[in-house]
From TrEMBL:
Belongs to the TMEM54 family. Its main location: membrane. It is found in: Membrane. It comes from Rhagologus leucostigma. Coiled coil: none annotated. The lineage of its organism: Eukaryota, Metazoa, Chordata, Craniata, Vertebrata. The keyword Cell division does not apply. This is TMM54 protein. PANTHER family: KERATINOCYTE-ASSOCIATED PROTEIN 3, TRANSMEMBRANE PROTEIN 54. GO terms for cellular component: membrane. Keywords: Membrane, Transmembrane, Transmembrane helix. It is a multi-pass membrane protein.
Length: 182
């Protein structure tokens, strides 16, 4: 059914706010993964670490897209008039949904690869002898016992946020389609 402008505004505003929050959270998660683990790993040049790097970069881009989508939704909820704004939001939410879907798949693959190789690529910066030693040695930039679980749990958080981003950007897309009466 068609909503009246007042409730449309509210739904758009809520959706925009949620997108903003989720986008920021995902951006932070991506930054944490990069800062704590990936910046040491991506130097080890092989397909898996390249995949990690690409996926993480894509996550950050998706997060920025989500944030801009949220901002546009909030703008549109204030000014329902401008057609250009509606088209911009339509394009943004479509791109956002697609980009987040790609990230979701990429992250799933990263988690799969990591579980498959028992975190060998994550631990690549540490020489094998040191993995047995719990304390952080000079050769190992992080605590090898925790890096595996913390990376996987950050990725799990990221997956959840990514799924939320997809859901709300699709909702945003549908709202915009309704506003454009397509």
């Amino acid at each position: 059914g068609h909503l009246d402008p007042g409730s449309r505004r509210k739904v758009l505003m809520k959706t925009g706010l949620i997108l903003l929050i989720v986008g920021h959270l995902n951006f932070i998660t991506g930054a944490l993964v990069h800062g704590t683990v990936l910046r040491f790993v991506v130097t080890a040049r092989d397909a898996t670490s390249l995949h990690y790097g690409v996926t993480n970069t894509a996550s950050v881009i998706a997060a920025l897209l989500t944030i801009s989508c949220g901002v546009s939704a909030l703008l549109l909820s204030r000014y329902l008039g401008p057609a250009a704004l509606k088209w911009a939001l339509l394009a943004l939410s479509a791109c956002c949904g697609l980009c987040c879907l790609c990230c979701l798949l990429g992250l799933l693959a990263a988690v799969g690869l990591t579980l498959g190789n028992q975190g060998r690529v994550l631990l690549a910066p540490c020489s094998v002898a040191n993995i047995a030693l719990a304390p952080v040695s000079r050769e190992c930039p992080f605590d090898p016992t925790r890096v595996y679980s913390s990376t996987l749990s950050l990725w799990a958080v990221s997956l959840l946020l990514e799924a939320m981003e997809i859901f709300f950007s699709i909702r945003c897309l549908l709202l915009t389609l309704d506003l454009l009466r397509l």
